[in-house]
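Run log, item B.
One chain of 386 residues. Sequence copied directly from the ordering sheet:
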Amino acid sequence: LRLSVLALCIIATFGQNDELQAFMDQAQEDYKMLGMTIGAFKGNEWTMRGRIGVRHADDPTPIGEDDKFYLSDAGRSITAMLAARIVEQSEGRITWLSTIADVFGESITVLSPFTEATLLDLFLHSGHILDFEQVMMTEELMEWYDQVWASSQWDMPEDNMQQRMEMTEFIVNMDCGDDPEEMCAEGRYSKFTYTVAVAMLEKFTGKSFDVLLNEQVFGPLNAPDCGLGPNTLDQSLPPQQPWSHFSGPWGVYDIPVLPGNQSNMPSSMTPDDGIHCSMESWKNVLSAHLAKNETFLTEKSWSILQDPGVNLYDSFDYAPGFIVDTSNPFVNVLQHPGGDQKDYAQCIVVPGANVGIVVAANQNLQGGMRQQVGFDKILEFVSDHL
């Protein structure tokens, strides 16, 4: 009987995959999409998967089932899981309420208002950390950010660890000026805040972000295809992995970005925007949020990671690494999009329903683009068939 039920489940999954694939093939043709992969899962098992397109605009190599994609901001929840693991294992030596000043002590100067910013504040975008809008306000900040890009490299994790320390020291010694709410506002989405948080974790443990992720997240959760930086540094053709692309809004052109030290975001900023994964590995990490396995994290930690901790811009609730939709009276929906103008990814996790979705594309997707319409239609199709 059990074998019969299993066989029926497998047949149903194959049927859903065929239906999804047909829908995606038509969407690619209609909306000029370059390359995309998507999968829905229940628990830790796929219920449907599909993929379309090519790895490189000028090469016919198709997107593969095990291809790795750059997650951009959509990978933030992975960084938050790492923080939860370190907090739990520290036996109170570092907590979610530890401040920047507590952790760094006299090793760096920390000015107000950053002295009281806690680890949890940083993961909730509430630690007064600047974002790109503020970077563009002064010549000093623009020159500093130019140097952040110029220093990007993927050969030496310890060098990136040192860069994060220097970035943190620079940020927490900023002059907030006559209007602190403009330069050092609280509750502003930032591409630097998780980097400062991870600098705290690196200071506490003496280990690099790379080592910590492999030890605390990727290894325990069976995510061997996750890593830091671009999903490939191989510049040869045919491509070994999907390349990033600049794409026009009507699908007329797709410009491949040569893999290298500056092909995605700077190497020091990987905690905010710099994790890559295959869909299988990403699913394995996110499925831990469904099971809430207490051998990995305690119930208290899962609650911190999944429950809204702040409302940003009077617009949406935010937990560490997730936008939280509480509009459904029965379940909360955790999700996070991510993009760096050359790639796009999104994750959706519904712990109360034990289901999730992971999706990624090797081109920029944003409002006003024909390809975004196709992406949204495919995501809606999968959501309706969960």
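Observations after the first pass:
- Confidence is low (pLDDT under 50) at residues 1-12.
- Residues 2-31 form the longest helix (30 residues).
Flagged for discussion on Thursday.
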